[in-house]
Each structure stands twice: as structure tokens, then as C-alpha cells.
Amino acid sequence: MYKRQLNSNRQSRVTHSSKGGFKEALIDKQVLVIHAAIADKLIAANEKGDRSYLEQIQNTLDSRRNSGRMRYGEYLTWLSVLEVIDDSIAFKNAILEDSHQMKKYRRRTPLVGILTEAERQRAIEENAVGSIDKALF
């Protein structure tokens, strides 16, 4: 192997290994706290008998599925999550599941338009943005 090939391989390994680092973890944390706020809002609305958000989510799911922007497995996963909304603990656990698949699905969430911009910002500020005095070293 030539010296330039060794350098090229080393550079690609460094770039590849840096993926999924701190920045991705921070994004996952922000997405998670936004979904926690969404779950709380959906549970509260459901307890009041307001099903408008669920209809909105169902329309988004159907639209994405019909247009080919969502695969069937993801579609079924979100439907399954919505089906357990009457059990608030199971619902919240399903939305906030700590699996690679749910992290991926949350990043392409069909739960759009549930939170106002102020609610979204508040969730991030209160839960996702750490401060130096809260950091663990």
C-alpha cells in the first residue's frame, strides 16, 4: 500500500468515527425533551376528550405513508404508540423509548404542529440545555 493510501484511510476513519458524537447526543436529547412535552400535551388533551391532535397526527401519518415518505414499519410503530394514549404511562414510555429505532423515528416525527413555538422553546430551555453547574465530570 502506498503512503498516500494509508493517509487517506486514516483520515476517513477519523471522520467516520467522529459521527454520532456529542452533537448527535445533544440533538437526540433536544428531540427527546420536545417529545416529552408533546406527550404531556397529548395526554392532557386526551383526558379532556379532545381528539383533534390525534386526528391531526393520523392525517400526517396517512399522508406520509401514501406519499412514500414513511415506511410501513414506522407507520405501524406510530399507530401502536397512539393506540395506548389512554394509558398515559405506556404512551409516554412508548414515545420516549430509548432505542436506536425510536430515536430515528423521533427525528422524523409525525407529531408536528402539536407544540407552539413558545412551548417547544420552553421545553428545550428547561430540560435539554444544560448548565455548567449541572454538568457531571
UniProtKB/TrEMBL annotation:
<protein>
    <submittedName>
        <fullName>Uncharacterized protein</fullName>
    </submittedName>
</protein>
